[in-house]
Design goal:
about 220 residues, mainly alpha, Four Helix Bundle (Hemerythrin (Met), subunit A), 9 helices, flat
């Protein structure tokens, strides 16, 4: 058992393997990066307005992650302001928007289904673990905050202040988010060239290479997905 599942009740061998995989952070991150590469390589966008709307959704996800990363100090201070006044897991909200943005930009029937499958398989355990960890660390402060703030659906009115100090230093040094953001911009640029600039069959390997290098160069993967 990993430290993420050691406090869960025992189960049979097969169910234990599945549970360990669902709680496995690195595989969740790698699958998410792999999906974006897959959508970039095999995507066949033909409708300009749908492509740009989908990329706008992905960009909003990037902005939400950057906003959240400037507030959170993992396992040190319970973040309850900024985006954390709206949802308990704004970084996950950003991830979800980015994945769906790339999925719909591909204009194929199967990318959104793969995103739904990934989210269903990995995100409930990830949220359960994060909530359990924060409850153990911060106790009553987490309990009071969680009663007012949902995991992924924004709470209105917010449970705390939205307009609070955002730290670029914390985002950059503490969480590495701007670097991940640059990598996402490069991925967006690669997709844009795929759709707008280049003949479709001449650049798939180059786009996939750029995407993989950006994703793989993002330092700590847990900051990106």
């Amino acid at each position: 058992m990993s430290h993420r599942t050691s406090h869960l009740p025992p189960t049979n061998f097969f169910a234990q393997i599945v549970r360990e995989l669902r709680y496995h952070e690195a595989s969740r991150q790698l699958f998410a990066i792999g999906l974006i590469i897959l959508f970039t390589v095999f995507g066949a966008p033909k409708t300009a307005w749908l492509y740009y709307c989908a990329m706008a959704v992905a960009a909003v996800g990037t902005v939400i992650r950057a906003w959240a990363s400037g507030h959170v100090k993992k396992n040190k201070i319970l973040a309850t302001d900024g985006p954390y006044a709206l949802v308990r897991h704004p970084l996950y909200v950003g991830n979800i928007l980015m994945l769906f943005g790339f999925a719909f930009a591909a204009e194929l029937w199967w990318p959104p289904l793969l995103v739904v499958a990934l989210l269903y398989f990995y995100y409930p355990p990830a949220i359960e673990y994060e909530d359990r960890k924060l409850r153990n660390i911060f106790g009553d402060a987490w309990e009071n905050w969680s009663k007012q703030t949902k995991a992924l659906i924004p709470s209105f009115p917010p449970s705390g202040k939205l307009a609070t100090h955002w730290s670029f230093r914390q985002s950059l040094i503490g969480n590495g988010e701007p670097y991940c953001g640059v990598c996402r911009v490069l991925r967006l640029r690669a997709v844009h060239k795929t759709v707008i600039k280049l003949p479709q069959n001449e650049h798939f390997s180059a786009v996939a290479g750029i995407t993989a290098r950006c994703a793989g160069g993002a330092g700590s993967l847990d900051q990106c997905f």
